[in-house]
Amino acid sequence: MIRKSVALVILLFGFITLFMSASVILDLFHIREKEGHYVTFVVWANFVCSILYLMAGSALLRFKKIASFWLLLSVLILAATFIALQVHIHNGGLYEKKTVVAMIFRTGLSIIFTISSYLFLKNKK
């Protein structure tokens, strides 16, 4: 029951992330204006991670060990993106403070998802 609940949360997070990142990329609902100084590579990393969340949530529902791999991959992508964001900021690039907060939140949540998935699936028979 808990595994299925976590999988559904991952899927929900994936759908929200997909909607928000695609909205910025495609400028749906004039969301680019509302986002201010968004950083393009951060939006694309979030888009890629949204697909990984959807694959991982689906795999976790089906009790597939690959879920942990997809989630770990999302953590690595987000960590690399966060480092790149820090370089971007250090070099005077435009950004919003909420982007930094969101990256910390998203990376932390992805770590929690990864650990949870691993613990749910490690003793799979």
Would you kindly provide a written description of the structure presented here, covering whatever features stand out?
This protein has helices at residues 2-26, 31-35, 40-61, 66-90, 97-121. It has 125 residues and is mostly helical. The chain has one domain. Helix 3 (40-61) runs antiparallel to helix 4 (66-90). The longest helix is centred in the first third of the chain and has 25 residues, at 2-26. It starts with a helix and ends with a helix.
Layout of secondary structure:
Blueprint: H1 2-26, H2 31-35, H3 40-61, H4 66-90, H5 97-121
Helix pairs in contact: 1-3, 1-5, 3-4, 4-5
Short overview:
Helix content is 82%, strand content 0%.
How far apart lie the N and C ends? 17 Å
Task: Report the order of strands and helices.
Answer: HHHHH
**Backbone CA Rg:** 15 Å
Question: Helix coverage percent of residues?
Answer: over 70%
Mean pLDDT across every amino acid position: 95
Derived structural class: mainly alpha
Oligomer: single chain
With helices defined by DSSP (H or I, 4 residues minimum), what is the helix count? 5
Task: Tell me the strand percentage band.
Answer: under 5%
Q: In total, how many domains does the architecture comprise?
A: 1
Largest sheet: none
Number of strands: 0
Global morphology: globular
Low-confidence stretches: none
